[in-house]
Amino acid sequence: MDKNFQEEQFTGIIKFTPPLYKQRYQFIKDLVGKYKPKKVADLGCADCTLLWMLKFCSCIEVLAGLDICASVMKEKMHRLSPLPGDYLQPAERSLTVTLHHGSVAHKDPCMLGFDLVTCIELIEHLDQSELKKFPAVVFGFMAPSIVVISTPNSEFNPLLPGVTLFRHPDHKFEWNRAQFQSWALETARRYDYSVEFTGVGHPPTGMENVGFCTQIGVFVRKYPQTSESAQSEKPTEAVYKTVFKAVYPSLKDEKYLQNAVVSEVIFIAQIIKRSLLDHLMSEHEEYNDDPTERKSKFQPSMNCFSEDLGKRVVEKSMEPFVNGNVVYIPLKTIFSFPKVNRLCGTLEKLCKLVAGKVALSSDGSAVMFNTEHENEEN
């Protein structure tokens, strides 16, 4: 179902700015910014809007969505796929996005090991048997560090035009604040979590006593999960069906890292080469009035190193130089540039990544460019 559309229908008089669903998603984004989870699962992910927003959070490396309705997920799951720009400029972090078709009342090992689990406007869609199993699955089996649950606050309903019983025809119940807090506190006690209550969607002035339109419980696990407890209930087989999976290009993948490093090395080397040749040309032009002197002064600059001396300079110096028609740019020089240094970490790694991808000196310590073309142009 489209929760967002339903909400907009009945909030014609009470206008939430931003819209209520955006406030809920922003609450999750702010929480991600605070706690920096690496693995996040959204239960009841519906049209994947929250997952799409979270994929831009640089701390997240694994995103998973689960919903009982596969068709709703499939309608917009293409938004979770990498874009051409993701391949042209791979991120330094890895990112895998997976969507599963299944029920939150069932346990599946693919949902183990998450730092944050979100259940946005989910529990009110569960029937009594599913709601009874829900805490054991989420808090007992999945046992993430943080669980966020949002649900309608029924005390707000009289302020919403057109709402007679529930806000959505699929809702099985809607709790007031006391009911939600009683359920949340008991669940937290049973599974060793603490819980704090808040919400989004402020009431109109003078009606503050009804509370937020959406009530939220933030559960934080009190104790780190031990490996024994994590494995104690692990089922032997998967029950969810994977309907989508995307692995984003990442610089943690050697292939993408090599492409990025080679491109950066060529870019930097071209700049250094151009600067060096421009310097030599300016030196050459100082002697335009005396062709004899120009030749005697300029030519040694272009051939200022014998072959043996050139090797020693490449090995021991970071200074680029010209020998005949070849410009030598030591990899040590290129490695000193911050981006290359950050990408490679060590000079040895840089040498390994560019080997066979760019023209190198015989000892592999410098990038080489032939200047014959430049000389013809000049």
TrEMBL record:
List UniProt keywords, sorted A-Z: Magnesium, Metal-binding, Methyltransferase, RNA-binding, RNA-mediated gene silencing, S-adenosyl-L-methionine, Transferase
Q: An example of a Gene Ontology BP annotation on this entry? A: RNA methylation
Cite the GO molecular-function annotations of the record: metal ion binding; RNA binding; small RNA 2'-O-methyltransferase activity
Q: Name one GO cellular component term.
A: nucleus
> Recorded E.C. number(s)?
2.1.1.386
The protein's matches in InterPro entries, at most eight in alphabetical order, are given as: Hen1, SAM-dependent_MTases_sf
The prosthetic group or cofactor this protein requires is: Mg(2+)
Return the protein name. Small RNA 2'-O-methyltransferase
Q: Which protein family is named in the record?
A: Belongs to the methyltransferase superfamily. HEN1 family.
Which superkingdom, per the lineage? Eukaryota
Record's catalysed reaction(s): small RNA 3'-end nucleotide + S-adenosyl-L-methionine = small RNA 3'-end 2'-O-methylnucleotide + S-adenosyl-L-homocysteine + H(+)
